[in-house]
Amino acid sequence: MAVAERTPNTAAGGGRAPEARLLVVEDEPNILELLAGSLRFTGFEVITATNGADAVQAAQRHRPDLIVLDVMLPDFDGFDVVRRLRSGGARTPVLFLTARDAVQDRIKGLTIGGDDYVTKPFSLEEVIARIRAVLRRVRDGVPQPTPRMVFADIELDEDSHEVWRGGKPVQLSPTEFKLLRYFMANAGRVLSKAQILDHVWNYDFRGDAGIVESYVSALRRKVDNVEPRLIHTLRGVGYVLRMPPNAEG
């Protein structure tokens, strides 16, 4: 039987109080170690568990501010964890980690009381941003049932697959939507063509990197055809979603 582990916060910055107490539930040791270590370094107190039973016990014992919960666990799934906690009166916010493209998982998770979700493979920056967004909503008492990503005047709704630029709807293909989502989840970070192929084409695409150029061009025509231009090319390096220097500040 796996045992929940609680490790004191050791974030850079010394003795400052942790930003929040998190329970991270993941049965893959490498993912758990990477995620928990990164969250501790960022400034969170982290408790870990590797199965559903220990997750329920840890949540009841430690009363975390938020639970990062993998859907697939060895004993019972993350949805059952949330049902058991909710039936016991716990209203701890939950960020689900779901399998790639598992749309039904996302809908089910939000329906039973989850607050948001991140799909695998995920970036650590996206997980941290979503944790903070959920905590902010909970603390401010602002309901936000539909997960949205926002950068500048671009909005992306992950449930309805709708996109807006400057308040106007933009029609994207499924692959264009995934590409924009990947850019928005990594805003400000330069992404190589290889990284984009891996994440947008789910690691199983064997074509050449020219497909990335074609889709970026198509995405620019649809969502980046007004000022300020937000998708930038770094020749020989990759692409980055960011505000142009003359528009910042």
Outline:
The protein is α/β, with parallel strands linked by helices and 249 residues long. It contains eight helices and twelve strands. The strands form three sheets. Strands 1-3-2-4-5-6 form a six-stranded mixed beta sheet, sandwiched between helices. A four-stranded antiparallel beta sheet has the order 7-8-9-10, covered by helices on one side. The protein has a two-stranded antiparallel ribbon with strand order 11-12.
Describe the secondary-structure layout.
Layout: E1 5-7, E2 21-25, H1 29-42, E3 45-49, H2 52-62, E4 66-70, H3 78-87, E5 94-98, H4 103-111, E6 116-119, H5 124-140, E7 148-151, E8 154-157, E9 162-165, E10 168-170, H6 174-185, H7 193-200, H8 210-223, E11 231-234, E12 238-241
Parallel strand pairs: 2-3, 2-4, 4-5, 5-6
Antiparallel strand pairs: 1-3, 7-8, 8-9, 9-10, 11-12
Helix pairs in contact: 2-3, 6-8
